[in-house]
Amino acid sequence: MKEKSLKEAVLRLVQDSVAVKERFFRENVETLITLVHCIVDTFRGGNKILIFGNGGSAADAQHIAAEFVNRFLFDRPPLPAIALTTDSSVVTSIGNDADFSLIFARQIEAIGRKADIAWGITTSGQSPNVLAGFRQAKEQGMVTIAFTGKDGGAALQLADYGFNVNAMSTPRIQETHITAGHIICELVERELFPRGDGSEAKI
After folding, report:
1. pLDDT digit string, tens, across residues 63-103
2. What is the number of alpha carbons within 13 Å of residue 133 lying toward its C-beta?
3. pLDDT tens figures, 33-72
4. What is the CATH number of the domain that holds 19?
5. Per-residue pLDDT at 195 exceeds 50
6. Domain range for residue 45?
């Protein structure tokens, strides 16, 4: 590929990414704000978030959990969020002894509690282990959040809060998911710690 063609490709890909994000946020801004209030209430109530997905979505789950537990924009008390993708012994034992489709459901059964949040990320909306996680969470009275792509799949129908990136490109879907995740983290942090130093925490 010639230098000019590479530059054109970069700009085209960026434009595509921006267009997908703009459409997503126009379509979901009101629900996103409602979700922020839900997460704030969850933390204030002493509950936690369990986040899960596969591949790049597993990385997003870990990324978002880290932002809550440690910090996003400023130092403040930690917030309880767990990525269900990080314990290799748990994940592989469930996958080996039971079935890979149960790697999230089994963990949710073990550590999920009523009024906790189960946040599943699946670009197809059809990942069997994410769907099983949602079903288990609903049995336990948890709130469910789905980040999906394409047509949303079954995950979108199972979730209390569904956010679908209406695109076919997995990279564009994932880019939008992490942007939405960052926005949620920032707004939740602002709501819980309005002065920005943690001294007015309302949890």
Report:
1. 999 999 999 999 999 999 999 999 999 999 999 999 999 99
2. 33
3. 999 999 999 999 999 999 999 999 999 999 999 999 999 9
4. 3.40.50.10490
5. yes
6. 3-192
Residue 199 domain-assigned? no
Contact 193, 201 (CB under 8 A): yes
DSSP bridge partners of 74: none
Separation of alpha carbons 156 and 90, rounded Å:
27
- Residue in 89, 164, 159, 79 with CA at minimum distance from that of residue 118: 159
* Model confidence, pTM: 0.94
Summary mean pLDDT of the chain: 95
Tens digit of each residue's pLDDT (9 = 90 or more) over 115-127? 999 999 999 999 9
Residue 149 is encoded by which pair of tokens?
């792509």
Collect all residues with Cβ–Cβ distance below 8 Å to 88 and sequence separation of at least 6.
none
Q: Is residue 173 part of a domain?
A: yes
Helix (H, G, I), strand (E, B) or coil at 165: strand
* Domain total in the chain: 1
Alpha carbon distance 110, 105 (integer Å): 9
Q: Would you say residue 201 lies in a domain?
A: no
Distance CA 203, CA 39 (A): 12
Q: Does residue 202 form part of some domain? A: no
